[in-house]
Predict the 3D structure of the following.
Amino acid sequence: MILDDLKLDGRVAVITGAGRGLGRAMSIKFAQAGADIVAASRTRTQLEETAAEVGKTGRKCVIAPTDVTSSEQVNALAATAVRELGRIDILVNNAGGGDDSLGKPIEQITDAEWRRGLDTNLTSQFYAARAVIPQMVRQNRGKIINIASGYGLRGGKHNYMYACSKGGVLQLTRSLALTYAQYNIQTNCIVPGIFPHNEEMMRFFKGGKFIPIGRPGDDAELGPLAVFLAADLSNHINGEIIAIDGGGLAGGVTPTGVVPVLPAEPR
Amino acid sequence: MPSDGIANDFSLEGRGALVVGAESVVGRAAAVALSEAGAKLLIASQEPGTDAKLKEVAKAVQAAGEKPILQVQNSAVRADLSATADLAAKQLGRLDILINAFDAPWYGPAETADDTAYERVMDSNLKRVWASCQEGGRVMVRQGSGVIVNVISVLADRGVPNASLYCMAKAGVLNLTRALALEWARKGVRVNALETGWLEEPASPTNADEDFKKTLLKYLPSNRLVKPEEIGGALLYLVSPAAGFVTGEAIIVDGGLMCRV
């Protein structure tokens, strides 16, 4: 049955940035699909909350406080997963985000801000892929899911580090996909649109008025796509960049949600 | 069973689905996948005179789920597409899902392709998809909900020698998908595409040329062709309630081929 090929029973998923937001939502959905979770992020208290949520599903959740910009800590994360749960079937590279450099004129961005941003969003994904791939090659099975952003495909005003790092994530995805296809490791990338995590973000994005579908995404909507890309049902999808953005990237030539820019009367 | 949580997200139980071009290799795979996931189906043909083929697909659909409704039609005729969309809505209760699995292969040098070839390739690969989207979309906009998936090929995104007309038509469908997605985004209708890599099928050029086959297989990251049933997963995701925030998107099922230089 096709729906059975979505199940992740017996699989082990390492998820970074699992302490909150999309990472926590994905951890819960992966557990609901049957996977045991290794939840990584910097803040132990947040991981404990994620673990409590995962625990309700009856699956295991190993918490692993990790600074993903440190290759030693990322290597230790992979070692923890293998030691505690015996294998690594899935890596979700979710940690990352914007920083204070966003919105600053270019001449005010410091070297340290640029490097820290790239380390957090891009180098972290490289470190984690490098850390899990030997185990996945030994298993002759693996799924890597990298989380990027629409800014990986389009530019943004005063948006350098974020756009460049997320663009790099797409390329990391493609090269991993090509290289490890022969080891039955599929690497894919999710491009989430706007998923506000709080009221302030919701106000900033004007309640999703500029999103074609007319609303922003909900954290719970990302999980099923990630599970699909982690499950056997997607075994021949590799190196693919999938947008879940309410139609945002399909357009972009006219502003959405202001007025119908093109006349509704045929001519 | 904890893992049933995910099956519920993707289940098509109670949904009405119309597959146009069900006699084609991908149409059949699409119909079977939707049936397995619980949808009720109307399977319609791309060409007339395909009764036997359609009956054979109906058997496979029934084996996977419920017995489908059959409609042999000529998709070149607008009135046929319109009547089929209405029939699907009536017989299935609702038209929740429309799959356009149109395909008419064409290969040949551009400098000798005549206008007849142009008309034929554009009509069967592009114009009919447009008409089917219009007719199905009309029903869905009225309902205030629905999802359309146009099954196309990676040639919508990339060029290949001796396939100019085909590449042009498939690219047309891809951008039609985006435009309709935006137009209907606030009317509850999602429109997406699914691009397949080189398919394992009777019409595959790998069956005609052993050298081409050898070279191609070496070039493919997975060293094999795409099995038609492998489109089922992406198709199911796109039409499922789990993809409510996905529109104007194309998912590629090619084993990684599009990553190559």
Remarks:
- The radius of gyration of chain B is 18 Å.
- Strands of chain B lie at 16-20, 40-44, 69-71, 97-100, 146-153, 189-196, 250-253.
- Chain B has a mean pLDDT of 96.
- Chain B touches chain A through 46 residues (CB under 8 Å).
